[in-house]
## 1
Amino acid sequence: MRDVAIIGVGMNKWGELWEKSMRDIYVEAALLAIEDAGVDHIDSMYVGCMTSGLFVGQEHLGSLMADYLNVTPIPATRIESACASGGVALRHGFIEVGSGMSDIVLVGGVEKMCDVGGGEATYALSTAADQEYECYQGVTFPGLYALMAHRHMHLHGTTQEQLAHVAVKNHDHGSMNPLAQYPFKVTLEQVLSSVMIADPLRILDCSPITDGAAAAILCPLEMAKKFTKKPVVQIIGSGQATDTIALHTREDMSWLGATARAAEVAYKMAGVGPDDLDLVEAHDCFTIAEICVIEALGLVDRGQGGKAAESGLTALGGKIPVNVSGGLKAKGHPVGATGVAQVVEMVEQLRGEVGERQVEGARVGLTQTMGGTGGSTAVHIFRRV
Amino acid sequence: MRDVAIIGVGMNKWGELWEKSMRDIYVEAALLAIEDAGVDHIDSMYVGCMTSGLFVGQEHLGSLMADYLNVTPIPATRIESACASGGVALRHGFIEVGSGMSDIVLVGGVEKMCDVGGGEATYALSTAADQEYECYQGVTFPGLYALMAHRHMHLHGTTQEQLAHVAVKNHDHGSMNPLAQYPFKVTLEQVLSSVMIADPLRILDCSPITDGAAAAILCPLEMAKKFTKKPVVQIIGSGQATDTIALHTREDMSWLGATARAAEVAYKMAGVGPDDLDLVEAHDCFTIAEICVIEALGLVDRGQGGKAAESGLTALGGKIPVNVSGGLKAKGHPVGATGVAQVVEMVEQLRGEVGERQVEGARVGLTQTMGGTGGSTAVHIFRRV
């Protein structure tokens, strides 16, 4: 396979975008990425999106987005892997460029979640869980992650305060990201006194419902300098893995096996390990998720994730900053876009472009995104060339 | 890229499968393909499916199907391209094997459509059209294809009888396919006197609502003989293309630009042309669709598609048999599975395994599947090695 670079990224302001439709926000992000890359055409496109059928009554996003981006008749493929859709879409752009099938590939992600009511949104998201064994019982995603949190507390002594520290950290980071949905700080007291959603998860332990899109332009590494004068970022590792879709069938509900597996594959391909990373964008759909993810990525030992945010290890300026973008927690979580937005942050960090939230001297970073309670995961590793 | 072979295929009996859930029918087809291929593991999987969120309240099919097929933690990706989902999934399996990323890849397709009522099914399928400009006006897919049919009649003199001949032919073929949903013949009189759905399309001009799945196993051509003693079928061409999602924005509503483009790419890659084909599996979701498709594939001149079934050109024993499997019309149309089921027929035909509906001496064939009114298309060309 050919080496693959990312030469452009784009993301619009996330939030409740009542005045824009799904196609509008996708095209906005795609055009930003195209402009950033300096390309005059694209050869192929991927659209990561979880459940636009339920959110806005629209499938067939390959055709729709190619049409509205005015790039027909190029191949355009919609990838769905629940909340990991964007990360899995990136992997397929990586494979397509690597294979030689296409040179310039746009990988976008999008979700328009705010056009439905809260109950409908909860239902739409629940389709990432096992419909016949989980949803049928009435469980929702806050409920499933609450089970994971309780298990983690039971096995490892993790505390509610440690969960809250993840939210405080990511909002600290997000307060420096003008594109974030909630670019403000929260205090530990605010998190711990916020309304309980599913014990032990409070509202400020949860990522929000968001409209948003993000996009990246990939090309063969050897062509990258033809298009851009900016520093080139290479994708040096890609891992994708699955786990059981239902939480109750796993040996340890608080261990993310698919993340561990995808990371193993990506580390091996990249020839780096956790100690080589300068920053990580991880899937903090709930505070407990970040805790479990950093363990599965090997950033901390198993069971030690709860202490990481509390101790400052994963904060900007700490040993391994996690979610400097604000993460899903503060930046927002338009599920299909999240995996691509992680790449936007990563590329801008590795180029040194993000201002006050810059990780100084960042050269190597990792993104991790997962679907459902971790039934699917994509991990990518990036290096500034 | 490496050369890619198909070494196993599988498909179960299609129909209204009340006693089985979506995961059951997918796993059945996947196991048949694995057994047919003689492999003891798979490295990666694709699941083509259009809108399981709306049909059965379940997304995240990569994780679900990997789980129920007991192949976690391999990468598993759900591909959506409306009714072309299966064909686009095949293309991604082809790219992944070709790239060297994986050796043995299972490409499956599935749709469980009969668990909802007719109105809900019509709504679910309408999400393949432009929600904001088409569905909002109340138009459904029979209505959209009826517009295409009227345009074709107006421009080219195509008749209602010619449409009906497509149905008669495909049911003739389907009567020889024991896995078909409707394995029986229909007469021209029966088609022409069947209930009108959307003028000029009658119920027997329409493909049915179906539960079904299909699967294929891909591997590098050079490894194929390690696994199977059966004749090896190579994928020699792959094309994927898009068109505007909405019908009204095309220059000619009866011309399938994405099919023409995908075919052009696939022919070029394969080094063959329409005259080299021994058989074609085409997307006859409505009788008019087959007429438009065979024109866009270059099997007949533009405007001449109506005469093809009438004259016997596209029947078994004719110059270029189209839809010897029975097509979507008689075999059924579980939308996400259709593109993969075409491959099942193609591989079994090229191996010479299908009994009375065998195209004698078939060596080279083409499959074409499309989403919506042709907003996305995948075309593949196959050769018996």
## 2
Amino acid sequence: MINTDVSQDQELRAHQDHHSSLRLWLRLLSCTTLVEDKVRQKLREQFDTSLPRFDLMAQLERHRDGLMMSELSRRMMVSGGNITAIVDQLEKEQLVQRVVVPRDRRSFKVVLTPSGRTSFVQMAQAHERWVVELFSGITGEQQAQLFSLLGHLKTGIRQHYVTSVCLDQS
Amino acid sequence: MINTDVSQDQELRAHQDHHSSLRLWLRLLSCTTLVEDKVRQKLREQFDTSLPRFDLMAQLERHRDGLMMSELSRRMMVSGGNITAIVDQLEKEQLVQRVVVPRDRRSFKVVLTPSGRTSFVQMAQAHERWVVELFSGITGEQQAQLFSLLGHLKTGIRQHYVTSVCLDQS
């Protein structure tokens, strides 16, 4: 389970002659991958579950009234087929259930069951602890700086999205 | 193609009562996802290709002598089956080829063909431009700060990996 293997470090793709933004992007990507890998590993070891299952349950925990399959797909960024398979499996384990939508009896929403919620809360607490540990190598002040800089970056990227859409439409 | 939809913003999962490290992680993840989505979209629109194909070709460009399938799998973080399918498709398009390993004639390595290399260089140049654009919302100084902070974060995470391996083994 050692994952310090350099082979999975996207940053190694960076050359000295690459633009500094590209080197920054590869570093950002490699940090994300390192954290995600650790979270995947811990979810598997401690809860015998996967990141897509955890993400799906996290979406349902935020939407107590349930979500249609199409809404789940849109929010999760995994393909519809995968989501159906995950929901089927979670339903078999009685962690979620499909409920008919009152106003449209041909449709249904997916909701967490009470035991699904209990299970999710345990995983979410552990997940938060793992993240706190993984980020503990930098100080609170550095974390605050990073949070702020990433906020500016995100605003810039979103701005870029909007601008390119406007240009596409003009 | 508008992707400013809030539904794909992992940061919305953050609650006020979450630990600041968790909020930082969700922001990091959402920045990565935004950039990756844009790169996927551009690769599809401008080169009719996918991010895993681009990543695989990037690995081969770095390893001119070619890579065994198992090495490719390890470096790419996508499952072996997918890699075989991607290599098959790229071979059909004459962008990569399988070559027999001289010392072990039962094995082969995958290498970029000359036209594969030309094709990759064009994509890589465009990819670098997109990334520069996406990161242009923050100043060079902010990018340098971010690069440095992410470097510290990465060192901390790797340290954590090593420590937990040592604890597991003790």
